[in-house]
Amino acid sequence: MSKELHKEYFQQQNAHNLDENPSSRKGSANQNICLSLESDMDCRLMINGQDQGQLDKNISRMFFLPAGSHLINAQTCDGLIEDEWVQALKNEDISFFIRMAEEHGQAQSVFLEQRDELKGPIGIECWTITEIQQAAIAAAKEAGTTHIFRDGPDAPEMVVIPRGSFRMGEVSNKHKVTIAHSFAVSRYPVTVAEWRQFVASGGCSYSPADNGWPGDNLPVTNVNFVHAQAYVRWLSTKTGKNYRLLSEAEWEYACRAGSATEYYWGDELGKNNCNCQDSKSEWSCRRASPVGSFSPNKFGLHDMLGNVWEWVEDAWHDTYNGAPTDGSAWLSDGAVSTLGNQEWRVLRGGSWMIDPRDARCAVRFMCDQLNRNAYTGIRVARTLS
Fold it and tell me: What residue ranges define each of the domains in the chain, with the CATH number in brackets?
């Protein structure tokens, strides 16, 4: 059960049972039990999913609850440390002391070190284009392949991406991610022709609408997250290799290619660098462009920004708090859509019709995994080891 559903369950089971007034115990057939809470730090408190405000340091507060299990959540005011547990109440009053100060001190030291480290370039952001290319060639050699390769005529052309560290996220809120293993990424978004091979082989019966745009070298559109997963499973079966979607961290690492700017070519949109609103391309706000119509990034990847949104593996989370820092996908405790009770997923990269502010390296978008449209496609990854 996800944390959100866990809290919702306790909130429903214990609605209206919370009371800080001792007088509520009098004259009740089912007498409430006193839970006394105290902490060694100021913290925010929730009981059964209900906000109880601040619990001040070394000042106890009493709550009168019915017998049973209650979900208690305490979080330091700066959000660095969170403690959550299920408190069972039986037939006697209980006092509980929440100890967070020591762990908070350690976390704060780490936070300050990381903040100082993130003030300047790190890892691959310090490499020259020559060093990036040499690292990619070395990673390919280590994996027993070439820098650019294809696993058969029906598979996309792939580019090897070397492992390394970078600063992920918006300028005002970056965090360090270390990509632990080299991997490969398709050089372009999956094309109409490549999807047609998928259908022709019997891997799928779904032929997406072409939006009235002729051409085999266009990115396939009108594919949802479920279609994307079916495609990578087919590729894996056909080639005997581990194809998959990129994690969100891998996507941004691959998109930035060592850059720390808003777009991988600089801080300004410029002219004819991609296909999005105001990009001055012949396709802007009209339709998707043929893949490879613009200059690649330093990794040799095309269309990472603009053209079509790309599905990644991760479930949607509002922030990066708690996200993996090793480049792996964040799959647990994602937000759930009310449409079919499906987890929201993440789209990256922007599209041919999107505002340029939403076609930047750091921008992320939440989307129901069953949604499909004329501005969403896919790009694939392959595990190398």
Answer: 3-112 (2.60.40.10), 122-383 (3.90.1580.10)
